[in-house]
Design a protein that fits this description.
Oligomer: single chain
Number of helices: 15
Shape: globular
Strand order of the largest sheet: 9-8-7-10-11
Order of helices and strands: HHHHHHHEEEEHEEHEEEHEHHHEHH
Helix content: 40-55%
Largest sheet: 5 strands, mixed
Strand content: 5-15%
Number of strands: 11
Radius of gyration: 35 Å
Length: 516
């Protein structure tokens, strides 16, 4: 209890300093420079310490930069929405879309057109406000989180009272974060964790009365243990390499947690030919699972398809954990099969919630808006680098359609049922390996002597490029005549019929007698 009280007091004191520094940084806007940063740090050093001041100013700058990037993303989104609405308003009611001419479809009714015109004015007003903030360098940041701040006005719906909300609010606004420094003892002088798990922190000058260890430090009675990557962490602090720590309080569980982080050496990038030398594990990303199938270097599926499920409902932390668990199982399966590459689709649903693109299909828009494409690819790239697995992104065009058309039925048997997602994995993997997706080539074009479309022929294994027409077989075009029966043996016009000429012959009607 004493350790928790001390951590809470130190966190709230440093949190107040961080809030004041964020206000100063926000007022400076675009005029902020290195000199202003040094002045802010010097003022904070007098009330805490140089290292705490450095951590606070760096965290403040990162928070301001994050809000600035959020403004840029909002500007791009607003301009895209305005352009889409204007393009549809300019079209006649019920007009069809013309992709070749670049024309959007018109709205279905006059009422929808009127509602969209009002929405256009609202978006333009919002864009003007954001552009003014962007030009002035003004950002809008809530320390503790905007979601928690809005929850203050809906306590009954959240099932909280004011006291419980204030405890969460104080915990979210605490500041107990310290960056590491290589060469210092155990990699961090501000928050130090020894190899035995003993945690101590440097107290600010105003709270030196709470010290129970030399040099103005407070040492906790509870030991710290890192279950995940504990060996790597121990190796770093043994060699006095930089490790950053963050201490935070979970009010719901009434527990304190310590998070350690550090920068790792970037993994070398494998050449594409070396990454695909052992085949590839193709992955089809879906709303509730990852479908995976191993393909050899010739593009043939090996083994059985696998499925790694996750649940995207609930909080953001729950969704993030579900994605991590699914990707961990996927990478373990990849290493188990012997492959060193994972092929995924280069999907991007940046405007997934837009009615201007997907219409009134709310279910589909809700599906793709919550689909974590960017987060999943970023997580996969980071986690695959740790495992020494390469990630190959391919064009997602027609992978599901062609996979179901050419691979789903041939691979389905009485003992194995292949889904559409499993077949899409094969299309993704073959595209990553450079093989054509289609199992059969296209039929030859129609001409005057070949009306009915022939059955498509099997594509050869060495066909790496686009699928072409079947090879021309020399000889006649009829099936009943052998190839060596003459160049025109299949000419159906070469018959002694009235009105038709025989092969290389002339024919003339004899004159008829007028009387017998």
């Amino acid at each position: 209890m004493v350790d928790a009280a001390v951590l809470a007091e130190v966190g709230m004191f440093l949190g107040s300093l961080a809030a004041g520094d964020l206000a100063v940084r926000s007022r400076q806007g675009l005029e902020h420079d290195a000199t202003a940063w040094a002045v802010r740090k010097r003022e904070l050093t007098g009330v805490c310490s140089a290292r705490w001041a450095g951590s606070i100013t760096k965290a403040t700058h990162d928070q301001w930069a994050l809000a600035r990037r959020g403004q840029a993303a909002e500007l791009a989104w607003l301009r895209g929405q305005i352009a889409a609405v204007e393009a549809r308003l300019a079209r006649a009611l019920g007009a069809k879309a013309d992709k070749r001419a670049g024309l959007a479809r018109g709205y279905d009714s006059r009422a929808e057109w009127h509602a969209k015109s009002r929405r256009l004015h609202a978006l333009q007003s919002r864009l003007a406000r954001v552009e003014a903030d962007w030009a002035a360098g003004r950002v809008r940041v809530v320390r503790g989180g905007k979601k928690l701040a809005h929850l203050r006005h809906h306590l009954d719906a959240a099932g909280l009272d004011e006291q419980a909300w204030r405890e969460r609010w104080r915990a979210a606004r605490m500041f107990l974060t310290a960056d590491g420094e290589s060469g210092k003892r155990f990699g961090n002088e501000t928050i130090r964790v020894t190899d035995t798990g003993q945690l101590s922190l440097k107290l600010p000058a105003a709270l030196a009365r709470l010290a129970n260890a030399p040099h103005g430090r407070y040492q906790l009675d509870t030991a710290v243990a890192f279950q995940h990557r504990g060996t790597e962490w121990l190796d770093r602090i043994t060699n006095n390499r930089a490790v950053a720590y963050r201490i935070h309080h979970d009010v719901v569980r009434d527990r304190w947690y310590v998070t350690a982080s550090w920068q790792r050496t970037p993994a070398p990038v494998l050449p594409l030919s070396a990454a695909l030398a052992r085949g590839v594990v193709a992955v089809d990303m879906n709303d509730d699972h990852l479908a995976a199938w191993r393909l050899d270097i010739h593009g043939n599926p090996v083994g059985e398809p696998r499925r790694f499920c996750y649940d995207l409902s609930g909080s953001a932390a729950h969704r993030d954990a579900q994605i991590r668990h699914a990707l961990t199982r996927l990478l373990h399966h990849t290493r188990h099969t012997g492959a060193v590459a994972v092929a995924v689709e280069d999907l991007a649903f940046s405007d997934g919630t837009s009615r201007e693109k997907h219409g009134r299909n709310k279910r589909f828009r809700r599906l793709i808006s919550r689909f974590p494409t960017a987060k999943l690819k970023a997580r996969l790239a980071a986690m695959a680098a740790e495992q020494g697995v390469a990630v190959v992104a391919v064009d997602p065009a027609y992978t599901s359609r062609w996979g179901a058309q050419h691979w789903q039925q041939p691979l389905t048997s009485s003992t194995r049922k292949v889904s559409r997602h499993d077949a899409a994995c094969i299309a993704i993997g073959r595209r990553a390996l450079g093989h054509p997706i289609r199992r059969r080539t296209a039929p030859p074009p129609h001409d005057q002597s070949d009306r009915a479309g022939h059955r498509t022929v099997q594509a050869r294994w060495e066909a790496q490029g686009r699928e072409g027409s079947r090879p021309r077989i020399p000889g006649p075009r009829t099936r009943g005549v052998p190839p060596d029966s003459g160049a025109k043996a299949g000419d159906q016009r070469a018959q002694h019929r009235s009105g038709h000429t025989a092969e290389q012959q002339t024919w003339q009607q004899d004159s008829l007698p007028l009387s017998l």
